[in-house]
Amino acid sequence: QLQQLILDTLDKHSKIEDTRSLDVPDKSDSLEAQLAVLGALNSLLSRDMVKYDSHETFSYVLTPEGAQIAKEGSHEARVWAALPAKGQGIPVTPVQLKKLVGDESAQVGQGNAFKRKWIAKEGDGLVKISQVDSITDTTQLDLQQIQSTGDLKSGDKVLADLRKRKLVIQKKGQWFTVHKGPSFSTSIAKPETDLTADMLVSGTWKTATFKKYNFEAEGIPTAGGALHPLLKVREELRDIFLEMGFAEMPTSSFVESAFWCFDALFVPQQHPARDLQDTFYISDPPKSLPPEPSYYKRVSTVHEHGGYGSTGYRAPWSHEESSKLLLRTHTTASSTHMLYKLAAKCRGEDVEGDEKEFTHGAKPTTKHGEKKDDDGFRPAKLFSIDRVFRNETMDATHLAEFHQVEGVVADKGLTLADLIGFMRVFFSKMGIEQVRFKPAYNPYTEPSLEIFAFHPMLNKWVEVGNSGMFRPEMLEPMGFPKDVRVHGWGLSLERPTMIRYGINNIRTLLGHKVSIESVENSPAVMF
Ligand code: PHE
């Protein structure tokens, strides 16, 4: 309808100087009318039926407060009207004034009325200045003018002031000058949007008008994948490890045997962490495959009878306990596999090639290039970030599964100071500068340290990780030489992620209550 109106008007006058002169159907508001005109013009433009220039206008409208003042007068006029003239009544105190004209008018109006010299102080109260027996409420008059014309004759300074007082807002408008285009006609043929097989067969494609491509159109947003906040933080942590020279460990086996999750780490078979209440056991298949027999023997012996300078636990060894399958409770199970693999050379196994993936340093050689006293050990720095499972009561901060971030370093002559140093660097790269270490207990490390970081938002020290030097009872049965030290530390991925994103309920991060939109919109993190 509007397109037809534009074409007909153009046909009659060959040009539309100002589209505000068009009588746009169903649009009483002029801004809306011009918006509709723009839509119609663009559609005609795409068919080359018209050309147009656009012009900007600014008009002004009243805010609700402005409209109230236009109706009832300005705050200052209301104050003035409420006061007695000097010498003709009892001055009105500020408290009384508030009752008379309301809090807001009393507050704003007093200052303005003083400025205009309409009122004066007398004693504790206020009065009209006697010379002023009538006032002109310019604010009200100006606002009334804006209300009816959208503009103010007296000019920009007053307008700027009214805008600052939030009584008036500026509205941008547009209008257009329209000319005929190369394909001008008064009849609108609906352009074809597709070239069809039928058109080709019948030959109608020769005369059909096609809709022009709009290369400026924004495409439909693609529903691409988005990284979950946890994965973004994982990426950052991975970068920290990689730039510190660590290699990533394989962590794909969620199901482990109790042997690799606990026994190989010298966790006693009676340890409470192995209880059903803490660990998810697998019933099918009922048992794990047996580990390599001689290593298995060394591990069971150190538990039962001791060795390597240890008295052991002196408790009966259960083969059944060791072969249970479970969902790993910590990624240290994977680290243990890797350490066992790292020690293969020390055990005299032939693993050429394999170890180069994750170890550091060359073989010690003599001047003639022969092997010299090679005990097979190569230092290694390893890390992993993956999922672990614990049979926990779930609440706002605990789920039955979460992610652990773990670093392990193996070398000769490492000390506790190296471990502390590594962790200071690591946490400072995460943006955590203030760390403290507290002696702790782990069955597989000695000494063990809990790591605390100062949380500026909570204004307190919070536990952020656990660490320690792996025990000889764990390392020596693997075949590591006595002078090899291995230290490690672990933290959860969830906690730093929740802190980063200001999330305080884990269920907003993981599980069925997570909004996909929030995942898609979550910003990248940068430590
Ligand atoms: N496995 C420990 C945990 O579950 C973390 C840790 C890793 C501790 C390595 C010491 C050495 O919290």
What would you say this structure looks like, in words?
- This protein has 527 residues and is α+β, with helices and mostly antiparallel strands.
- It folds into three domains: 95 residues, no CATH class; 62 residues, Winged helix-like DNA-binding domain superfamily/Winged helix DNA-binding domain (Arc Repressor Mutant, subunit A, Orthogonal Bundle); 276 residues, Bira Bifunctional Protein, Domain 2 (BirA Bifunctional Protein, domain 2, 2-Layer Sandwich), CATH 3.30.930.10.
- The protein has 18 helices and 15 strands.
- A seven-stranded mixed β-sheet has the order 6-10-11-15-14-13-12, with helices on both faces.
- It starts with a helix and ends in a 6-residue tail after the last helix.
- Phenylalanine binds next to strand 14 and strand 15.
- The site of phenylalanine (PHE) has 11 residues, from strand 14 and strand 15.
- Belongs to the class-II aminoacyl-tRNA synthetase family. Phe-tRNA synthetase alpha subunit type 2 subfamily.
- Keywords: Aminoacyl-tRNA synthetase, ATP-binding, Cytoplasm, Ligase, Magnesium, Metal-binding, Nucleotide-binding, Protein biosynthesis.
- It comes from Dendrothele bispora (strain CBS 962.96).
- Its EC number is 6.1.1.20.
